[in-house]
C-alpha cells in the first residue's frame, strides 16, 4: 500500500480556507457566540463580531438561561415570579382574576358576575355579594335607591341590603299651644294657627271656649265681654250715672234701682 505523505523539513501547512480566531480554526460562513454575548461569523478569513440581537416573540419571557444571551419563551415571568408553561395562577390583587402562562405570554380573565351581584375577593366564590332589593309598601327598590315616603318630600328613605331606612325632616320648635298648631297641605311641619272665624275664644288652659258673638260677664255685673271674630275677647265696663237716697241693689244687676224713690 502506498505510504502516507510526510512533511519534509522546511515545508509549511497551507492555512485553512476559512481562518483562525483565538487559536480555533473556523470554516467560511461559520457562526458562533463569544463570551459576553457577542455573535461572530467567519468571512474571508476574518472573524466579524458584534452584539447579540435578541428577537423575543412573547410578552413575559423568562430570563436567559445559564450561559445564554437571550430571554426564552419556554415559561413566563409575571410580577417577579417565574411561571412554568401552562401554569394557571391568580395575581396578587386579582379579585378572582385567573391567569395562564402560554408560550411566554400571560393571559388573564376576570369573572363576569350576573346582574345584582358584585365581585368578591374570595376565589372560592367570586360573585358572593348579592345586594338585596327592598320591598316596601307594594314597591320594589334596588340596593342604594333613594325615595320619598308618600311622595311628600318630608321623609327620605334609602334601600340598604334589603332594609329600608328612613329619616324625617326636622321641624322647628313652636311656641304656640298644641291645639293652635296645624299642618297645611304640602307642608312637612306644622305652624301656629290663626283661629278661624268660627273657632271662638279660649279663656283658660282648661279649654273653656265661647263662640264668636257670645256675651258674658266675667264676675262683675258692671263688666260685659264679647268674643270677637279673630278669637280675642273685648270687655267694657258700665258706669252708673246719678243716684238716689235709697237705692235698691238687685243681685246680678250692675246699677241700683231707684224706681222706689
UniProtKB/TrEMBL annotation:
Residues 21-74, 74-135, 132-202, 199-259 form the VWFC domain. It is found in: Secreted. GO terms for cellular component: cytoplasm; extracellular region. InterPro entries: vWF_C/EGF_Fibrillin, VWF_dom. Pfam families: VWC, VWC2L_2nd. The keyword Secreted applies. Residues 1-30 are annotated as: Disordered. This is VWCE protein. It comes from Smithornis capensis. The gene is Vwce_0.
